[in-house]
């Protein structure tokens, strides 16, 4: 009779061990989707898993009860079975050894391995009995959890916070396993990193702004719209540092050109923000104000540049080109390890090409070049930065427009260093 009871107890031990593994490794998102699709059992399992502290306490209490009971019965069985010398003196030791091996293999390792392969499936199987035990053992679990809280030196957070780095790691793993493709992964990464960007990192700089004066001739404004293809133009008073609004090409052609109203009557209020505003907050502000453009101010109140709704959306989905846009590539490979780079390109994008992790204050390539040269760049100016050689190939007035970058392989530098070290006259030699 005792061997049968022992087998039953080991089966229960396996059940508790597998249940512990299943509920600790289940995919809650998968269960939530299954529950939303009508799987009632998945919803019950998910609800039980949400109260994990009570569940794990019940599992551990149950597992310890069956294991202790199995060990006690096994000891009684082996003492009654091994009565002849010299085995009678080893009965307890033999019982301990046999039960340790049996519980380890059949009550721990094997059931946990099987539960880990299909945690959701086993959790559904285990749910009825373990939910019943959670109710029956409630007084014991409450007492144990109370003791645990009293023994804790400080209050710990009841929920784990998933960081952005962890989410990005999940995305990389999903890409490697084929759960999502590269484009979907890039979209998720852009969404996660979206609110880390500031307006100054995506703006159109003031020197590139096409704007019109309040008293500009209508013919010139007409030419601006035709030449640029823009649907909106900022309007300034005296200087670009005092942008007072924006005009839409529809209003200009339908009202001003037809003589229905004056230019100042179609100027709409423009949103002004500081350069450090996060683009997520800026997007909400533009939506609230029903505006498609914002003027970005520097620390002194001057105009640093402008940001459009399209600029913000492009940070999520990538470059957006319409049939009127001239496609411009910021980085063009001329030959192996040699590139042509527009100075409006973000410095982070170019540093990623160089495989640099440096953090600098400048947000654009042009700012970085001026900072390195410490002057207004001229065509032909050159400098070296780490393992790249930079040559200024095009300038416009007081700014740099285009550079040429040559990347020197790091291996060659290491080989050069090794050669110089081998020719060092102070190097120790044999024979002395």
Overview of the molecule:
This protein has helices at residues 2-25, 28-36, 40-50, 52-81, 91-117, 119-136, 138-151, 164-176, 182-193, 218-228, 249-256, 279-289, 309-317, 347-354, 365-373, 410-422; strands at residues 204-205, 212-213, 232-236, 243-248, 271-274, 293-297, 303-308, 331-335, 338-342, 382-385, 388-396, 399-407. The radius of gyration is 36 Å and the shape is elongated. Helices cover 53% and strands 14% of the residues. The strands form 3 sheets. The chain has a 5-stranded antiparallel β-sheet with strand order 8-9-12-11-10, with helices on one face. Helix 3 packs across helix 6. It has 432 residues and is α+β, with helices and mostly antiparallel strands. The chain folds into 4 domains: 2-151, no CATH class; 164-196, no CATH class; 202-317, CBS-domain (Roll), CATH 3.10.580; 331-413, Uridine Diphospho-n-acetylenolpyruvylglucosamine Reductase, domain 3 (2-Layer Sandwich). The chain contains 16 helices and 12 strands. The N and C termini lie far apart (86 Å).
Number of helices: 16
Binned, the helix content reads: 40-55%
Mean pLDDT: 82
Order of strands, widest sheet: 8-9-12-11-10
The count of strands amounts to 12
Order of helices and strands: HHHHHHHHHEEHEEHEHEEHEEHHEEEH
In the predicted model, the low-confidence regions spanning at least 5 consecutive residues are 155-159, 412-432
